[in-house]
Target: Lipid II isoglutaminyl synthase (glutamine-hydrolyzing) subunit GatD
Amino acid sequence: MSTESLRIVWIYPDLLSTYGDRGNALILQRRARQRGMPVEMLEVRSDQRLPASADIYLIGGGEDGPQALGAQRLLADGGLHRAVAQGSVVFGVCAGYQLLGTSFFAKGTKYPGLELLDISSDRGETRAVGELAGDIDPRLGIPPLSGFENHGGRTQLGPSVSPLARVTTGIGNDGATEGAWRGKLLGTYSHGPALARNPALADLLLRWATGVHQLPPLDDTWADRLRSERRAAVAAAARP
Ligand code: GLN
Model:
């Protein structure tokens, strides 16, 4: 951690905040505070400079236009690249995941991404909308992913990143894998918000940010209830 408190930045709430993904910031903040960690939460709009000294950066989903604009501004700003070079954690969801890669399509045009993750995105034939679930890379040691997806893009992974999960329900990157991670950078197509539906993923980001490998367990009754309710809904929908 860079300072006494855990610094979390929610990037561009004015552009990339359309799918409830701001809840990810709230979940991280709450889970850190419940363990006695002071948290400083910063919301940085797209007309402001991005501080490079925070511990965790969160980027949410967005429609094509705001996604392209957000990527252009992050490229011009350079703060996220400096933060990553210093070892900060980055968590991107959907549009925020795609723009971490080398390129993505928005409104039929190819845009350069931030090149922080070795991924590139094009468009699928159909929009992927619905439940998204998968078995997470065993090296991350966390239970299956549970989420909701809504995107037109499809994502190819290069050799220097690993898929976050193998898809069991939904599309994710391409119907087979979902999300990607490398070092302390992690992206997913999962809304929900993702960290409310996947508290173990929130704790993984907190462990990466703090270097504390054993975080005290929290009461996850409500998240567990939500996860099993969604699992049951997926199973019911799959029955003939
Ligand atoms: N605009 C992107 C797409 O449709 C991302 C959508 C999203 O963030 N939900 O693929």
